[in-house]
Amino acid sequence: MRRASDTTAFSEFAEACAPSLYRTAYLMVGDHQLAQDLVQEALVKTLLAWPRLHDRANLAAYTRRVVVTTSISWRRRRSFHERPSDRLPEPVGADPGDAVVTHDAVVAALLTVPPRQRAAIVLRYYQDLTEAQTAEAMGCSVGAVKSQVSAGLQKLRRALGRTFDETLPTEREVTS
Q1: Element (H, E) at 143
Q2: Which end of the chain is more exposed for a tag (fewer CB within 10 A), N or C?
Q3: Mean pLDDT by 10-residue block, N- to C-terminus, for the chain (176 residues)?
Q4: In this predicted structure, what is the pLDDT of residue 89?
Q5: Number of other residues whose CB lies within 10 A of the CB of residue 112
């Protein structure tokens, strides 16, 4: 438990040393807001060490040292060099959660497609096999693969509705 006199003494110390600590912090990090954060963190560390600090004459030196060592440890962090900007460096994509919902809906609809058509669609689009490779895997002709895929995609489109049309290949993509 801290005594009221300790709290008062620390408050007076912090108020008296804050400008000097801020100048030191600013020169260490080169950013006004980071310097304020650094001073605040150094003062918190000093407050936590307050009961152990018996030589009150060296409090400013101790806290300045905390500013320096904390600044150095901040610089070692990978995230220290990241800075916010007005522009995002990469284009913002779709919400990853939407992809999970879409995937689950497509899988559920795929399970309603007859087995041979499902196999043709899975081998062709999920396994990314050519029509010839798909035909070989299914033990049928390339023409049979094309017709199975075409019929299966029509059933998938009906099962999914118009909202998922952009996720399924078009007829031109199927026949090419």
Answers
A1: helix 142-160
A2: N
A3: 74 92 89 92 91 84 91 73 70 70 82 87 88 90 94 90 58 52
A4: 67
A5: 12
Q: Give the predicted TM-score (pTM) of the model.
A: 0.45
Q: How far apart are CA 145 and CA 136, in angstroms?
A: 10
CATH, residue 114: 1.10.10.10
Reduced DSSP (H G I as helix, E B as strand, rest coil) percent helix, strand, coil of the chain, to 5: 80, 0, 20
Q: Which domain holds residue 57?
A: 4-81
Tokens of 160: 């999914």
| Structural domain includes residue 91 | no
Query: How many residues in the chain?
Result: 176
169 DSSP assignment: P
Q: Tokens 């033990």 appear where?
A: 139
Instruction: Say if residue 76 is in the same domain as residue 116.
Output: no
CA–CA dist 99, 103 (Å, integer): 6
Please report the pLDDT score of residue 1 as a whole number: 45
* Assigned domain for 16 exists: yes
